[in-house]
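hey so i finally got around to running the thing on that chain from the lab meeting. sorry it took forever, my laptop kept dying and i had to restart like 3 times. anyway pasting the input first so we r on the same page abt which one it is
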Amino acid sequence: MNPFDDFDDDNADTVFRDVIMLILIGFVAMVIMLLPHIKKEEDETADHKAPGNVIVEMHWPSEMYVDVDLWVRAPRSTPVGFWNQGNDIFNLLRDDLGMEGDATNENYEISYSRGIRPGEYIVNVHMYGVVPTGLVVPVTVVVSVRQKYDSTRQILKTVVELRERNQEETAYRFRLTAEGELVEGSVSTLRRPLITGYNRPAPLP
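ok and heres what got predicted. didnt touch it at all, straight out
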C-alpha cells in the first residue's frame, strides 16, 4: 500500500474544487461586466422600434373634461386629425376624447410619420368640445425627430392656450431637411387653419 495514495487523492480533490470555483467566479465576473452592454442594447432596440420619424405629441391636463384634437400636415400632403386619421405620410394613433372612454385619465394624442419628407410641417391644436366659461386649457405640444438608426430627439416644445369651442391655433410651422434637421429660421406660429379652413371629404356612397 502506497502511503501517498490518500494524500494524492486529497490533493486532486482540492485542485479540482479550486478550478471549479475559479471557473464559476470568472463566469459571474463576465456576466456582471456584460450587464451594462446588454441593457444598452435593449434600450437602443426599443428606441429603434418606436414608431415614426417625425413624432408630434399633444397633452392637456388630465382633470379637464374637454376634447382637444391634434392636427398635423406634412409637406405636399393632406391634414391628419380625428376624421382623417392617416395618409401617405402621417398617422394619428388615437383620437382622445378627454376623460370619455379612457382606460386612464391621461389626455394625450400622438401622430407620427413614415419617413421624413423635406419641406414645411404644420402642427395645430383644435378645441372640439365645449369649454366651460372662464376655463383656459393649456395644451403642451412636443415635436421630435428620429432618423433610421438614431435615438429620438426633441426639436420643439410649446404650450398653446385654448378658451372656446372650435378654436384652432397653430402651435408650430417649421421646415425639415430630408435628413431630419430643423431648417434655421423656419420656425413660426403664423396661423394656418387645417380643419376650420379645410373641406371635409364627402362620405363614400
